[in-house]
Amino acid sequence: MCWILGLGGVVTAVLKRFAAGSWITETVTTQLEHVTWAGFRFYDLIFPLFLFIAGVSMAIALPRRLERSGHGAAMRHLMGRALILVALGVFFSGGLRDGWDKIRWLGVLQRIGIASAAAGMISLWLGWRGLLICVLTLLGGYCLLLGLVPVPGFGAGDFAEGHNLTNYIDSIWLPGRRHDGDHDPEGILSTLPAIATALLGILAGKWITSGAAASRRVIGLIGAGIVMILLGWCWHPFFPIIKKIWSSSFVLVAGGWSAVLLGVFYWIVDVRGWQRWTAPLVWVGANPITLYVCSGLGFFRTMSERIAGHPSKEWAWITSCVTFGLMLLMARWMYKRGIFIKV
In sequence order, what DSSP letters do the residues of 191-255 get, joined into one string? Predict the structure, then answer.
């Protein structure tokens, strides 16, 4: 959340100002941009990591809700949360500003709502083995669909942009405005492997809350993550790692890195107890959707321009720092006053 709420912009702006042309700057700025199509960079991890962590959170929260209210209430909660996130996503993407024909029905928040709700409902009825089989079925089935079902004019197994089954289904069935012309990176068919990402998070959450020793949990998360990363890259030549269609290999690589990071930070924060440095992250994590919407609507950028103005190119990095600082101040203010806007 910090990266997409301005920290990435701060790092890039500062490096370009004080270390322009260095290999460090080139490497970091490249990693803070999405790949054009196939491949994987750090910035491609942020979205699936958020969905993975949503799964981890559900693995912790849903058993309590089940015990307190039962399956029916848990399902209603998941469906209600999904509807709210879809509505927020539509509003965030422009809403009715340009008319009904220009509404973007699917997007980032919509995917989080739909995929996490579907994964949560699946987890209400399945145990470890069932969830794992479900993940494998979604990833394998998605690969078979794109590999075997022909697309008019391009045939089967063509994963190039605009040539694949995922993009084709969007061009035919997805109403309203699409992000990339006649298709969308958060489109209809790619929701299926996105559910698998959330399910991986639920599996990780079940493992991290199990009765195993803390050291074993850490090793298990990191080990499973490394295996998934290797499997994803081995799959890449046959089914490329493509975020914009949420390919099965992308799910494995992103899920692997998510598991590794969860294991590392679980060891640092919970096992070792090094927690003081996490305060700003806790502030942001307490109200992530609220801060995301405010940032997307330009609230922090507008306020920073009022405060810092429009400095020259040499001092433009100050605006990025002020924007991120304002976001942290708002996050801290809400946290200290116990304001938690939950969805």
Answer: HHHHHHHHHHHHHHHHHHTSSS-HHHHHHHHHHHHHHHHHHHHHHTTTS--BGGGT-HHHHHHHH
pTM recorded for the entire structure: 0.91
Yes or no: say if 197 and 115 are a contact pair by the CB < 8 Å rule: yes
Q: Is 224:203 a contact under the CB 8 Å cutoff?
A: no
Provide DSSP, 149-197.
Answer: S-BTTTBSS--STTTSHHHHHHHHH--S-BTBBTB-TT-STTHHHHHHH
Handedness of CA 295, 297, 301, 303 (dihedral sign): negative
Domain range summary for the chain, segments of one domain joined by + = 37-274, 275-343
Q: Which two tokens stand for residue 302?
A: 């507008």
Q: Which residue has the tokens 């920290």?
A: 7
Quick one: tokens of 47?
A: 């979205």
For residue 21, give the 3-state DSSP assignment. Answer: coil
Tens-place pLDDT, residues 53-107: 999 999 999 998 888 888 899 999 999 999 999 999 999 888 888 888 889 999 9
Distance CA(94)–CA(49), nearest Å, equals 25
Indicate the helix (H) or strand (E) that contains 73: helix 71-92
Residue appearing with tokens 């494998």: 136
Please write down the HEC assignment for all residues of 261-330: HHHHHHHHHHHCCCCHHHHHHHHHHHCHHHHHHHHHCCHHHHHHHHHHCCCCHHHCHHHHHHHHHHHHHH
Q: How do residues 289-317 score in pLDDT, each as one tens digit?
A: 899 888 888 889 888 888 888 777 777 78
Nearest to 115 by CA among 205, 233, 246: 246
CA distance 324 to 286: 16
What is d(CA 113, CA 26) in angstroms, rounded to the nearest whole number?
Answer: 35
Please tell me whether residue 38 adopts helix, strand or coil conformation: strand
- Identity at 134, one-letter amino acid code: C
